[in-house]
Amino acid sequence: MPVTVFLELRFQPGAVERAREVMGRALTDTRAFAGNIVTDVLIDEDDETHWLISEVWESVDHDEAYRAFRAGAGKLTELPPLLSAPPKKTRYITSDV
Asked: Into how many domains does the chain fold?
């Protein structure tokens, strides 16, 4: 069953250009990762430092494998210095309602 993950990111003022570079490279890997159906970046129209990454995965197992990759070999070491707050991840299970 597909799952949707929202990752909320808040960048420091002045870090948006660098964030676009870092996330542009990172999301190439995300989109190519096994089980990724689609990944979109939503940027707050009133605050360019506030981003929401929307990821749809084939299953919880695919999402978990991706998170393990990001915690290990695919760790984004360039991202934390750009953030003004810790990232917030929320996972939603697709319903048949």
From this structure: 1
